[in-house]
Amino acid sequence: MSATFAGIDIGSNSTNLLITDAAGNELVREVNVTTLGEGVAASSRLSDAAVARTLAVVQRYAQTIAEYRATTAITGTAACRMATNTVEFFQQVQRITGTTPRLLSGDEEARLAWHGAVESLPPIGGTTLVIDIGGASTELTVGDTAVRDSVSLPFGVVSLTEAELQSDPPRAEELSNAVSMVGDAVDNSVIERPMLGEATRVVGVASSIVTIAAVELGLRSFDAQRLHGMVLTRAAAEDVFRTLATEKLVDRVHNPGLPVERAGVIVGGCCVLVAIMRRLGLDDLIVSTHNLLDGVVAELRGSS
Prior knowledge:
- The protein is built from 13 helices and eleven strands.
- It is of the alpha/beta class and about 300 residues long.
- Strands 8-7-6-9-11-10 form a six-stranded mixed sheet, sandwiched between helices. Strands 3-2-1-4-5 form a five-stranded mixed sheet, sandwiched between helices.
- The radius of gyration is 18 Å and the shape is globular.
- The two termini are about 15 Å apart.
């Protein structure tokens, strides 16, 4: 078998696998919601239940990677940065996979997500801003041929939902507070880093943005070809937000394009996205189904 490369991204909301060949052609891509970041903001620990869910998925990924005999990199992000028991968790991952996980800093996460997002899009003459909404943080990163600046906002779909969206459906004041908190953080970031608000092109990555786009299209099944490169307007994002935020969870799960396992936190993702689009004055953005994991695997291929 020719050289193959694999990455496992252990995120705060999902644990993801990507395997490519030496040329970067995708062989396997899998996303599973494991909600590792559940409760971390309050307890500062990865819960036993969240760890068990995540390790079960990692075990299955390890078997797939072994079949491809792939050189492997494993990364952890915001939930792992926040938790006090990450070392113990990483030791368990290492025992299962034989690979020592790498704890990404906010800057490293932003850089890899930016490269993963833009490598499959046409080059442009100006700058590209990448919006990466995760489970416990959101990265805004801008660059041209390389990353020029970035900021990590302390709001993600899991953490914002747990902190602000307590009702089912969320009350109007809960939604307003959530959007305002994110918007204020965006305002402060742009004041300190003006380049974030001056991008030629804006790209949105990761599961929340892809899911919002899928709901807008009413997809009955995931279709990467329709989603990758799709232009998602602010009007469409606001419309999806209004629809999902006013439904009870038992009704929300029936929206085409919305996986059941994401229905509990997608309103939080909508709050983050619309807050960013409003405060940056964005009319639209380009959806990318490529993300942090593509950056991790591309880096792995380049170093081999």
